[in-house]
């Protein structure tokens, strides 16, 4: 999804298609603006598509609360939607106020914050293995992002002071991202994974609609196929990603699910290389290996713990049984 957003705001040369010929009223020396979509416009369009996919699927399968969520958790779902919008807004703002590397590292404090808050608020276990995996993965993020405030000290080059507003915005973005994990974990089986993207789309539609309602706002209607392809990628990857995240938080603790989220940095690194032809940096390769190793180690510990737990279980006292149908819609049995 992040790659699609970047492509909409900075089209890659491999997939960019030329703009159509200008209409006759354009002068020969008049330049046309490129089709670069504003983040609010991307959020607005994505929210519409996400709502149609979520509500349409639930209406087809006759799931309760298909339009605004099931009774009893609608407030929590709207809170989750607001947290998602604030997280997106802080992330976009932090990237604008800081370098991409600095913002990335600060935003990826979220798994550590999630583990601490999950232990304090939800009383979930936060083992040393979870803390170690999160810390090691953060080192890998630092290697890939190479933030100036860390790598500059290693190289000895002079550093510019950080923008305090940018640092605060990135930390708030990490906090809101952590609150998403905690809220979805708290809701668990009281709503299906499809209700989470539904609530996010409702809040984003309202907030982005307000942000683009001013008379000075200029909407850009895409005319090139590549823009629509990238927009479809953003909508679909965001939709299925939210479902997968919600499903993971039903069966796994918030801290561990947040730590596994580090793997998206590796995928972003690989996709950026293939799409933008970015030359791989030794630090980036090292960081990808570190993150991949920590995620694999955490998954191996999970499998080992699960096998040990099953060997000592007597009787059928599973916490909850989840049935998954082909549309990834979850029901409580």
Structural account:
It is a single chain. α2 (39-60) packs across α10. With 333 residues, this protein is an all-alpha fold. The protein has helices at residues 2-9, 39-60, 74-97, 100-107, 110-121, 128-145, 148-155, 164-187, 195-211, 225-251, 254-260, 263-276, 282-312, and strands at 322-324, 330-332. The longest helix is centred in the last third of the chain and has 31 residues, at 282-312. A two-stranded antiparallel sheet has the order 1-2. The protein starts with a helix and ends with a strand.
Overall number of strands: 2
Mean pLDDT reading: 79
- Which regions have little confidence, pLDDT < 50, spanning 5+ residues? 17-22, 25-32, 314-333
Q: Cα-atom Rg, whole angstroms? A: 22 Å
The helix content is: 55-70%
The strands making up the biggest β-sheet line up spatially as: 1-2
Q: What is the helix tally? A: 13
- Summing up helix and strand content along with how strands pair, one would put the structural category as mainly alpha
Quaternary structure type: single chain
Strand content: under 5%
**N-to-C series of helices and strands:** HHHHHHHHHHHHHEE
Give the overall form: globular
Largest sheet: 2 strands, antiparallel
Distance between the termini: 33 Å
């Amino acid at each position: 999804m992040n790659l699609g957003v970047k492509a909409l705001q900075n089209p890659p040369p491999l997939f960019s298609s030329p703009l159509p010929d200008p209409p006759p009223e354009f002068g020969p020396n008049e330049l046309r603006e490129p089709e670069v979509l504003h983040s609010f416009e991307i959020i607005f369009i994505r929210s519409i598509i996400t709502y149609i996919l979520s509500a349409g699927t639930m209406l087809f399968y006759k799931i309760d609360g298909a339009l605004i969520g099931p009774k009893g958790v609608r407030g929590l779902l709207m809170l989750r939607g607001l947290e998602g919008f604030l997280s997106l807004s802080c992330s976009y703002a932090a990237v604008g106020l800081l370098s991409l590397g600095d913002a990335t590292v600060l935003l990826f404090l979220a798994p550590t914050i999630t583990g601490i808050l999950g232990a304090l608020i939800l009383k979930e276990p936060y083992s040393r293995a979870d803390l170690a995996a999160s810390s090691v993965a953060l080192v890998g993020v630092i290697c890939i992002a190479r933030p100036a405030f860390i790598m500059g000290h290693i190289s000895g080059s002079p550093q510019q002071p950080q923008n305090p507003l940018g640092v605060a915005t990135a930390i708030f973005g990490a906090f809101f991202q952590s609150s998403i994990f905690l809220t979805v974990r708290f809701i668990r089986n009281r709503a299906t994974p499809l209700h989470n993207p539904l609530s996010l789309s409702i809040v984003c539609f309202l907030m982005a609609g307000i942000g683009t309602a001013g008379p000075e706002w200029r909407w850009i209607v895409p005319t090139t196929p590549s823009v629509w392809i990238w927009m479809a990628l953003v909508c679909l990857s965001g939709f299925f990603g939210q479902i997968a995240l919600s499903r993971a938080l039903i069966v796994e603790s918030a801290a561990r699910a947040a730590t596994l989220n580090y793997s998206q940095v590796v995928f972003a690194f690989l996709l950026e290389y293939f799409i933008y032809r970015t030359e791989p940096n030794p630090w980036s390769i090292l960081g990808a290996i570190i993150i991949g190793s920590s995620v694999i180690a955490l998954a191996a510990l999970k499998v080992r713990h699960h096998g040990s737990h099953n060997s000592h279980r007597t009787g059928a006292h599973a916490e909850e049984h989840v049935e998954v149908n082909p549309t990834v819609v979850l029901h409580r049995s």
